[in-house]
Amino acid sequence: MRLALSDADRAFRDELREFFTTKIPAEIRERARNDELRYPEDMVTTQRILNEAGLAVPNWPVEWGGKDWTPLQRQIWSDEMRLACVPEPLAFNASMVGPVIAQFGSQEVKERFLPATANLDIWWCQGFSEPEAGSDLASLRTTAVRDGDHYIINGQKTWTTLGQYADWIFVLARTDPNAPKKQAGISFILAEMSTPGITLRPIKLIDGGYEVNEVWFEDVRVPVDQLVGEENAGWSYAKFLLSNERTGIARVGTSKVWLADVKERAARTALGDGGTLLDDPLFAARVAEIETELLALELTQLRVSGDEGSGKPNPASSILKLRGSQLQQAVTELLVEVAGPDALPFGAPDAEAPDWAQHAAPKYLNYRKTSIYGGSNEVQRSIISATILGL
Amino acid sequence: MHFDLSEEQQLLADTTREMVSRAYDTESRNKVVDSELGWSREVWQQLAEVGILGLGFDEDSGPIEVMVVLTELGRRLAPEPVAAAALIPGATIAAHGSDEQRALLDQVAAGECLLAFAHTEPGRRGMTELATRATTDGTTWAITGAKSPVLAGDSADVLLVSAALPEGGTGLFLVDVAAAGPAVTRVSYRTFDGQRGADIAFDGAAAQPLGSGGDAAAAIAETVIRFQAALCAEAVGAMDESLRLTTEYLKTRKQFGVPLKTFQTLTQRAADMYVSLELARSMSFYASMCVADGRFDPVVAARTKMQIGRSGKHIAQESIQLHGGIGVTAEYPIAHYAARLTAGDQTFGSTTDQLRYLSRQVGRYGVVTL
Fold first, then answer.
1. Smallest Cα–Cα separation from A93: which of A187, A3, A190, A15?
2. Residues in A touching B368 (Cβ below 8 Å)
3. The whole model's pTM is what?
């Protein structure tokens, strides 16, 4: 048991820190810090720089651009990226569909998709949730019926994040409606968004922005060579994907940076009594609580990451999702308090209230999503109680 | 950076767990706690024999071994004052004592000499200045003042006492209770969780400066931080067992004709207890790893004690609630764990004390780091 990084790992960290803070354009990192990224170009620019340096998909197999890093090194990579406010590689590509194709796809599917996925030449989106299949994902109704060399897909997907920029979608569809268990008849199919019969409608969120969509499939013909792995085995691929999604979701580094911004702004917010908001013991205590909780989660993440070598999902990753989402929410909540009455104007460039303050409340409301997506926190608790506690 | 125990450390954990499990179940523990001494000389000797009472006194073992053992003692709620009467004051003597004073540690490790750290003073929270004073005639030293509560102070043979120095600063002294005679008086008691302690009054008690004497503020801070890390390690064991007992109960206890685990309102709460436990465990590792690196950082200690205090309270309260009525009885173990966790929180700075301290630091740095 040892806290300090080895000399080799410290050198590794310094090298990455240098890369992230010098090779990724400062204006992109600044926009990321303020949650004002320009889509899709900031994501594409960043991921291509990372990919050229071999830093976009370290979690993939080495032959497809991955790195033979230790779990700790992967964690350092992720932490340093967040601390430098580098937009992380698009999750749908780098941590969702990429690993699934690399693990379960045929050689032909790998060659066709992996290089383009790593380089964000293809922008992927996720076709999992449906209006009647949220937490109970396995009850999904979208169907794929074999017709010669094609599947014909019909159904509706929802909560498709950033689907408006997507070139391709990975879809869970029911291929065997008569399977004995609802999980058993599902397949994992890839479809080009421009295929006739696919339509996309944006869903406006409470912060005024568009980040999620509904996607309809109407007699969409998809060649059978776009099936990943085996027919009717899609549920196990989906579970593999979701557990990868959970570990990336804690975002401790991002919360740390945002909390530092909260403090800086609180230190510039004068209270009537001559002190600042940060001097106020009540406010400072809330900051101190979140800081300590973030470090406790960071240490837990470092402990868990050490166990990932087995390739099996570690149920403790549910802790990361659960607490990570709560802490992101706590930080965004605190930022609204710093903004105070300046939080009220919205989209008013000529108002006195600074830009960050105008964004504070919408961001807070938007971040209520974090305890819902990626398996709601209640689902995470169920995983913990069933898998870890045996209840 | 890694979080694994070495083979020897794992063996130490297993040995300790086995030894105290053999010694104590709830009934036998209750009996021993109710005895006058409050713990067992026999178990103390067994702990000495396997080397537990000398952990950290030399290069062969250190703060990680101390942590491992205390977590196991916490898991069984073993009443022996291993940290308070041996390991914590012993580590300070080992680090700062003279050769002659360090020789005392052989007796401590053998279970023949009991120590106690007499630092906390009545009516002084977050002490910056001590009322207990040390005086000297040029060759010998004497201590006058009052300390309370002193954990394990009731049975200590030698006290490690903090006292204000005549020329300013704070010193650390050793007081041999028998040699001091009537100059040391103690009011012994049991704590609400069954530990033992004492209020100790010094009236010109003969004292020996620790090591070369002089200002010992750093050594005192080290001792407090070691003590806090030990309390946290012990609390993790208590939380771990509380959750295990609660989980077991949810599986076996039936109401409405079904096991309690059928009810999601209970299992979701058990999951939150698990999260609290693992966060606390991470912080306990953190505190002990820092001490092992020689990093006696009060901020690290405060963060750790705050997280452990929060987790401990959460797990203690929920363990009782999920058990129902049996959870507040003395014959069932779960409330004893709650008592121990509550007592640990109030020892060397509560959750609120730590939060107050940390709140005053937040403006001094930007991004929080380990």
1. A190
2. 256, 259-260, 291, 294-295
3. 0.95
